[in-house]
Amino acid sequence: MLGRLSPHPALLAVTAAATVLALSACTGHGEHAAPDPSVTGSSPAGVFNGADTAFAQGMIAHHQQALEMAELAAQRQAGPQVAALAARIKRAQEPEIATMRMWLAAWGQPTADPAHDAAHPGAGMLTDAQLNKLRVASGADFDRLFCELMIVHHEGAVAMAQRLRADGASPQAEQLATRIIAAQQAEIGEMRALLRK
């Protein structure tokens, strides 16, 4: 006899509300809300999508290679202008890496995309052969090669940042992308001027 009883109206309302919430969580064009920071322990990162995740993962690897190049300046007797530029690159990009790692943690995403090789020579990434040439160059030869390679590297970062501005959903990522474009375009101009000397 109990099997014939109708469900309580309040139970039906709760079930319907839960269904609506579950369905709405499945929409949103790939955008996600970051996990509650009180649960993750990270600062809030807001709404994000796949383009934001790919940008942060790719730019971390990109910045890490720029840091490797910048660290060579002190080891390979770079001239004062190139050494100063390398130091500025390092000061700017180390905190940006930390920021993007924080976002990925808050978004529940890995630091690197397991489907892609971070060392893939795309977006201005240097090949092993190019890095090896830079590692053995010194003095004026190092300065010239550093500028030539870093220009290509920066152009790749600018292209990545422009894609993020077109496709991303995170306001924080867009702000960082805008800063990267401005800073790296200015540095490209500086390096081109050094090469003309």
Structural account:
The protein has a single domain (33-196), classed as Ferritin, core subunit, four-helix bundle (Ferritin), CATH 1.20.1260. Helix 3 packs antiparallel against helix 4 and helix 3 packs antiparallel against helix 6 (139-167). Mean pLDDT is 82; it is low at 1-30 and 33-44. The N and C termini lie far apart (95 Å). It has helices at 9-25, 37-40, 50-75, 80-107, 128-136, 139-167, 171-196; strands at 32-33, 47-48. The protein has 197 residues and is an all-alpha fold. The chain is elongated and about 45 Å long. It has a two-stranded antiparallel sheet with strand order 1-2.
What structural class do the secondary elements suggest? mainly alpha
* Cα-based radius of gyration, to the nearest Å: 23 Å
Please state the average pLDDT score.
Answer: 82
- Poorly predicted sequence stretches spanning 5 or more consecutive residues: 1-30, 33-44
Order of helices and strands: HEHEHHHHH
Query: Could you name the CATH homologous superfamily?
Result: Ferritin, core subunit, four-helix bundle
CATH class: Mainly Alpha
Q: Tell me which CATH architecture applies here.
A: Up-down Bundle
Oligomer: single chain
Structural shape: elongated
Q: Please give the order of strands in the largest beta sheet.
A: 1-2
Number of domains: 1
State the separation between the terminal residues, measured CA to CA.
Answer: 95 Å
Using the coordinates shown, work out and report the CATH topology: Ferritin
How many DSSP H or I helices?
7
What is the total tally of β strands?
A: 2
Proportion in β-strands: under 5%
Biggest β-sheet description: 2 strands, antiparallel
